[in-house]
Amino acid sequence: MTEPLLQVENLQVAFSTRHGTVTALHGIDIALARGETLGIVGESGSGKSVTSLAVMRLLDRAGRITGGRVLFDGRDITHAGHADLRRLRGSALSMIFQNPRAALNPIRTVEHQIIDVLAAHGRLSRASARTQALELLRAVLIRDPEARLKAYPHELSGGMCQRVMIAMAIACEPALLIADEPTTGLDVTTQQTVMELLARIKAERGMAMILITHDLGLAARWCDRIAVMEAGRVVEHGPTETLFEAPKHPYTRRLVAASPTRQSTLADLAPDAPPVRVRAVERRPPGTPPLLELVNVVKSFGGPVPAVDDVSFRLPVGGALGLVGESGSGKTTLSRLVCRLLDPDDGDIVFDGESIARIPAREFHRSRQRRDIQIVFQDPNDSLNPRHTAFDSIAHPLRRLEGMRDGAALDTRVREAASRAGLPMDLLHRFPHQLSGGQKARVGIARAVAPRPRLMILDEPTAALDVSVQAVILQLLDRLRREDGIGLLFVSHDLNVVRMLCDDLVVLQVGKVMEAGPSQEIFRHPQAEYTRTLLEAVPYFDPQRRATLLSSTAA
Amino acid sequence: MLAGIARRVGRRLLASLPALLGVVVVTFMLMRVLPGDPAVFFASGPSAGKEEIEDLRRTMGLDKPIPVQLFRYLGEIAQGEFGRSMTTGQPVVLDIKRRLPASLELTCTALLIALSLALPLGIAAALRPGTVIDHTVRLLCTLGVCVPTFVSGLLLIYMFYYLLGWAPDPTARIDIFASPPPEITGFYLIDFILMGDWDGWWAAFRQLLLPAFTMALFVLAPLARMTRASMLAVLGSDFIRTAHAMGLSRPRIVVAYALRNALLPVITITGIVFSTMLGANVLVEKVFSWPGVASYALDALLSSDYAPVQAFVLLMASIFVLVNVTIDVLYGIADPRVSVA
After folding, report:
1. ipTM for the complex?
2. Cβ contacts of residue A414 below 8 Å, gap of 6+?
3. Which residues touch A236 (CB under 8 Å, ≥6 apart)?
């Protein structure tokens, strides 16, 4: 090992936008040896994806390398021509992306897409194109590879698409593979298998890998060395263990603190947040009806199995209950049923002692319970009207549900809701595109809080947010619950988050309840096999966990 | 797959029957509501007496209440009887059968020309957005769409026939002194090929070019703009970035990856454009004295000749249905995500 495989020296990238030139990278230095795995971590906007695209020279038209150089295998490729780059890409350095389904050509079969890569680098032996493609699919451990050859991306699951993507990326045996958030958006168990596959292939073929991720747990588990990026700079880098156990830079420290570990509580995640004033919990007499009760609820969309199959649970007044499961487990359908956006086929939904299951979904907006049950949606970007200011978004339910008119009263209520959600008042007149992800999430929460609901349904409210923002939002939700007594129904695939926020837990698989009970109990002693699998797959942030895993894959 | 397509086509055709019936009824009523009395129009002369007109009205069945007339008309249609044109004196079916190939030949040629211009222009514009090429394409398209066909038709005639003398006399489908091919399909270009008469084919082709270009210019804009927009969207998508990251060659990315995906919405637009052209080419047919169905229907409409107009509208509606079904099938073949069943 004389010289590094990849050396990035003082790399600077700028984007020309409507508001002038924006510098995305302020001089990045990265070095990577053969066979090594480097993790680049950081939050959105830190420039980690731009770094990888710049190395691949895949920046779009607006982006430009303004300084520094990229040496690959001793060769300066900073200003290499198109033909040279084409030969390098896919064969010497390759890349896999986030959102694998979109990264594959929707109208071309898996077989053809793999063969295209082989053909582009003259690695194709005419007679055996199919055999080569088949071998690659076997290498990525896809189930039933013969049948998958003929499949189109939309016929495959997200995990399988990522495997196909990996097959294409390793087709020409590159020396370096850049994986840009390769598991984001996949289920936890799928994340696990995809990362194991990547580590195995990397070890077998002696590839070097750059893993770009926002998830410290993932990086700690799979990388030899870590570079932490913030606002277009590498603020700290070093071997995984030392970096995470004794972070030097304040940003790394904050990031490490915000990453949930097995033991962390909400207070650990954002230590500088104001303490929660726990409302004197009025002890409810034992006979008090629960805030929400589901009794044998069934909902089918006409598929072979119902989306929600005989689900029952109770949520006490001011309680927090987590619905956990992977995609297709019926958790979102269940939340829609409770919000009364969907009608159940069978069973009963009782809110505050009154059955609301028989009110048709299209009539529910007129019922008085609409005010009491509010929703916070998953994507803070898509769930806000781009033509409404934050003020209008928050005022909307007040206008619709309480018939309030513009005036001092409405103004007061909106400001009250905004302050409950921790949204600074001077942001109220901004449009969604002028707000950050965390601020948009706060607008979404303020909108739900505005009509003073008694139950809030949260559909993965932090899935699209950075860990530091997530920590703050989770604390905010916890505070709303404890100070205002709002019951929370929290839908999530992230067991860690659910554990910290919720007293009770319902684990769902294909529409059925696998396990239910107090969340601490389930975490300590999971009963169902499925719960155990889910728990094991969670990428806790734990620097110690890496060594055991690597030795097991090497074996 | 084939059986699935056939089933789908059958279902779609069946489902379109109520719409067609609706078209027949509405056209029928509309014709009755429009001012103008066919009996007066077709009476022997301005001096025709009241009795003569009443007589004519009775023979035409116009004295009965409108609902009765409608049911009688529907009954006739069911038997394949579309009535007679008062102007030509011929059965409407015969007239349309003679004239429809002329219209179809013109429209199809125009569509081919439009597509062969619009696709390269749209692609070129999308590959170099914001450049001179892009702006030129936009200008061309805008010109094509905002100059009415009768103006652009006359301009083309002025330039290529009057000034340059490249084009033949812009009247009818073939020079009046040349003999048309024997009626086999009714499409002159095909009939001449079948006869092996290449001089005749060349003459008919030259005759066809100017009107076809006039129409093509008119529909160039939607096709080229759609190609550009769709191509731009596809070029910006994730799987194109993947293709670049995998080192695929640029021509391969543009043609096999981008273009094939970008064509999907263009297929839909092409169907709509084709249907529009069939109805809208009346102006072109008039300017070039093209003996097509549209000019036939217009003449009939002006002379309150009910039967041809009603038959024409029904014909257009049926073609519209057929084109839509065809587009559906094509789309299903081109995009594996659309289920065929």
Report:
1. 0.78
2. A391, A394, A395, A398, A428, A446, A450
3. A227, A228, A243, A247, A248, A249, A251, A252
Together in a domain, B179 and B33: no
Q: CA A487 to CA A489: how far, in whole Å?
A: 7
Count: domains in chain A: 2
| pLDDT, tens digit (0-9, with 9 covering 90-100), for B258-300 | 999 999 999 989 988 998 888 778 888 888 888 888 888 888 8
Q: Give the pLDDT score at A450.
A: 92
A413 found inside a domain: yes
- Diameter over CA atoms, chain B: 86
Kindly report, residue by residue over A23-35, the tens digit of the pLDDT: 889 999 999 999 8
Is A105–B243 a contact, with Cβ atoms under 8 angstroms apart? Answer: yes
Do A86 and B249 lie within an 8 Å CB cutoff? yes
Domain that holds residue A112: 6-259
Q: What is the CATH number of the domain that holds A363?
A: 3.40.50.300
Closest Cα in chain A to B234: A105
Which residues have CB under 8 Å from B293's CB, separation 6+?
Answer: B96, B99, B100, B102, B103, B312, B315
Residues B103-132: tens digit of each pLDDT:
999 999 999 999 999 999 999 999 988 889
- Containing H/E element for B330? helix B306-334
Confidence band for A546, pLDDT divided at 50, 70 and 90: low
Is residue B201 domain-shared with residue B108, that is, in the same domain?
A: yes
Residues 228 to 257 of B: which have CB under 8 A from any A CB?
236-239, 241-250, 252, 256-257
Residues 6+ apart with CB under 8 A from A161: A100, A101, A103, A104, A153
> Would A281 be classed as within a structural domain?
no
* pLDDT above 60 (res A280): no
pLDDT for A438 equals 82
Task: Clarify whether residues A350 and A234 are in a common domain.
Answer: no
- Which residues in A have their CB inside 8 Å of a CB on B? 56, 58, 60, 82, 85-91, 94-95, 97, 99, 102-108, 116-117, 120-121, 152, 154, 165, 168-169, 172
Residues A44 and A37: beta-carbon distance below 8 Å: no
Same-domain check for residues B113 and B41: no
Query: Are B210 and B297 in a shared domain?
Result: yes
pLDDT over 90 percentage in chain A: 29
The DSSP bridge partners found for residue B216 are none
B307 plus B176 within the same structural domain = yes
The Cα–Cα gap between A72 and A6 comes to 5
The total domain count for chain B is 2
CA distance A445 to chain B (A): 32
Provide the residue type at A115 as one letter: I
Final residue in a domain of this structure, among B46, B78, B110: B78
- The predicted pLDDT at position A549 comes to 44
